[in-house]
Here is the input.
Amino acid sequence: MPKNSYIVGFDIGTRKVVAVIGEVTEERKIEIIGIGTADSHGLRKGVVVDLDATTKAIKKAQEEAELMAGVEVDSAFFGISGAHIKSFNSRGVVAVSGKNREITREDVRRVVDQSKAIPIPPDRDIIHIIPQEFIVDDQDGIKDPVGMSGIKLEVNVHIITAALTSLQNLRSCVERAGIGVEEIVLNQIATARAVLTQDERELGVGQIDIGAGTTEVAIYERGSLWYTATIPIGGDNFTNDIAVGLRTPIPEAERIKKKFGCIAGPPVEDQETIEVPSVGKGRKPRVLSRQLLADIIQPRAEEIFRLVDSDIKRMGYDKSLNSGVVLTGGTALLEGLEEVAEEIFDLPVRRGDPGGVGGLVDRVSTPDFATAVGLILYGFHIWQDRGLAKDRKKGAFARFKDWFREG
Here is the structure.
């Protein structure tokens, strides 16, 4: 692995854009060397609605990260989310064509290609085809069938599609910022790289990422991704509830949420108070109980978790969460959120802080950096797996395309 190699990830969220630059060391580890953040006003529920505002936010985060790292970014991995993302499971079947019925890489390629031979609307594009397991002559649970002998090869895959216009708008913003697109990656896949352990993936786990505009769900079992969903409710709904309930401006509600936000799960002393600015010129701020803030936040948290729980049960994955649930995203920082989730899911719940990297760890070890760090780890995995490392003194690594991406 060359000494001067960099991988760059951009988490383009509803509230902020996060850019992270990781350096690949000679020991084949990732060191975070650059971080940039910028307020985002060009997205709504994960979808670009203002090209100029989104481009400016990407550029600002890029410049801040470059300044910290002392390198230039020329291309990066970008996360994508939103209610337009649709996913489903599919299956492919082919006859083994190799000599002596030995399964080759070409057979694997053919069966994965066959799994996507289903009608896809013209306004949608496939962004991931993720093999879950291979079946050789009715023997399932096989991760890599190459070299095995068999007559029939099957594969179960998870296919993720996105609205073509949403992809094009995201690419337009990135290109306007002067950055090349290494790959557009589903947020849930990137985040899982940073917050889930291999044991959790094998036993079965639910990942819930509560961002500003959306809540993103992923379910892993037997080491593979089996289900993804996006719910169009997130941290902004908490902010709006606080603004209405406390009769305070939206920016102040966001500040109060971040600084004092809590849920009635942990004990909140009735005498503990917060100062709340009033709406309207000349009105004095009021002093209110923090318990009132908790009473406003808790119903929305319960609503989100009940929606997720209902969706998981509807799809039949409620028995797959053997190792519990992992909460991540900026809203996961709310005090008491894990206790509310445990009560609704009746499962162990933990907060997912990103790991697996070195360098500026103290700056990125909170849930709101999980997707950006995960994009770095995703890129590093692809880079290692495909042997695509190149010696470069500046920028991220060169563009490449692969026939499928692992989740």
Summary: Confidence is low (pLDDT under 50) at residues 389-406. The longest strand covers residues 124-136.
